[in-house]
Specification:
Blueprint (H helix, E strand, L loop, with lengths): L3 E13 L11 E4 L2 E6 L1 H10 L1 H4 L7 E5 H11 L5 H11 L3 E5 L6 E11 L1 H12 L16 H6 L15 E3 L2 E3 L6 E8 L7 E21 H8 L7 H13 L6 H4 L7 E7 L19 H19 L4 E7 L9 E4 L8
Parallel strand pairs: 12-13
Antiparallel strand pairs: 1-10, 1-11, 2-3, 3-8, 4-6, 5-6, 7-10, 8-10, 9-10, 11-12
Helix pairs in contact: 3-4, 4-5
Length: about 350
């Protein structure tokens, strides 16, 4: 039976604009008939992957790029024990197709892969060793290597080599406010210190504030399969993701808004199926001073109703700094590190 770890977090952000659309406007979604502020799953996953907390707890981070020459320069720097020509030959044969383009202004030529793909220094080092041991360069395209943790979690699609495709072990939802959101406009000026009066630039930014519901589900068995280890060996990875979900936020506009917040409430469940609790907020929570506390109560109540009504096999633990949660079906812990199974 497949085991899933479901992560639910409620995090309150004051004025912020951490995720924008293609027009530079605050991302939103309509849910339960009202407009909510939204942070996309892609935005949140990248923030986690780039965070110091994540980097400190994984062996290696993937390098996602389509820039061949830049990747080659990085590999030459990180792998000084190998000849640069050998590294280049391996990169040519380990990635997707390469095309050469000429800059219209500088006339300089640069090479790019035809798709953005995740690479890792460790995998490239291993490929070089394989070539030195007799593996044909062209045969590298068919070699399936153990992925980095972020690729094991988020997956990979490689059209040039389907054998390298990896199904994501982690599903992440777009974060939504538990209540209706009013999108406000910040009118700002950039003052010119050498001008007698007036500003050098005038502009506007949208922003919002609210309690966001974050949700992710990790297929523990698939994660173990992706990294070629046992289920027990996935514990550190899962604990890292739980910590990141509670503490990491996207960096956009943080120099302007400084919305550096941690989650007030984190609920983790171990069950035989993924389970979102977003419908606890289908009816928007009243946006009052106790919006966080009411959101916690609604989340826990919805979890209890689903477990009872569907007779689910589920074990739950929660970290609650508001001391609001009260449930016979949820074990409360005092530290975020205790959210483990």
């Amino acid at each position: 039976m497949t085991t899933f770890i479901n992560i639910h977090a409620l995090i309150s952000h004051p004025s912020s604009m951490m995720n924008r659309d293609d027009s530079g406007l605050q991302k939103t979604a309509v849910f339960g008939g009202t407009t909510r502020s939204r942070i996309s799953s892609q935005c949140l996953k990248r923030a986690i992957r780039q965070s110091d907390l994540y980097k400190a707890n994984v062996e290696e981070l993937s390098i996602r790029t389509n820039k061949f020459d830049e990747l080659l320069s990085l590999c030459v720097e990180k792998l000084p024990e190998f000849d640069a020509k050998m590294i280049e030959d391996v990169l040519v044969n380990i990635g997707s197709k390469i095309k050469t383009e000429t800059d219209k202004e500088t006339k300089q030529k640069h090479r790019t892969f035809d798709a953005v793909q995740p690479y890792s220094i460790g995998a490239i080092r291993e490929a070089i060793h394989m070539v030195q041991a007799g593996t044909d360069l062209k045969g590298l395209k068919k070699i399936v290597q153990i992925p980095t943790t972020d690729v094991a979690l988020s997956g990979r699609m490689d059209a040039s080599c389907p054998e390298r495709n990896i199904e994501a072990a982690m599903s992440v939802a777009h974060s939504l406010t538990t209540h209706s959101a009013d999108i406000e406009v910040d009118w700002f000026t950039a003052c010119d210190d050498l001008a007698e009066q007036g500003s050098g630039h005038i502009g506007t930014n949208e922003f919002s504030s609210g309690v966001f519901y974050r949700y992710a589900s990790i297929d523990v068995d698939l994660l173990a399969s992706n990294i070629k280890k046992t289920v027990a060996d996935t514990a550190d990875i899962i604990n890292t993701i739980v910590n990141c979900f509670a503490q990491v936020s996207p960096s956009a506009k943080q120099k302007t808004f400084a919305a550096h917040n941690k989650a007030d409430f984190v609920l983790c469940t171990q069950s035989n199926q993924p389970l979102s609790l977003a419908n606890a907020f289908r009816k928007p929570i009243p946006n009052t001073g106790d919006v966080m506390e009411v959101s916690i109560k609604s989340l826990v109540s919805h979890y209890e109703d689903l477990v009872d009504g569907y007779e689910l096999q589920s074990e739950a633990k929660a970290f609650d700094i508001t001391k609001t949660a009260n449930s016979e079906k949820v074990t409360l812990v005092n530290k975020i590190s205790e959210l483990s199974f």
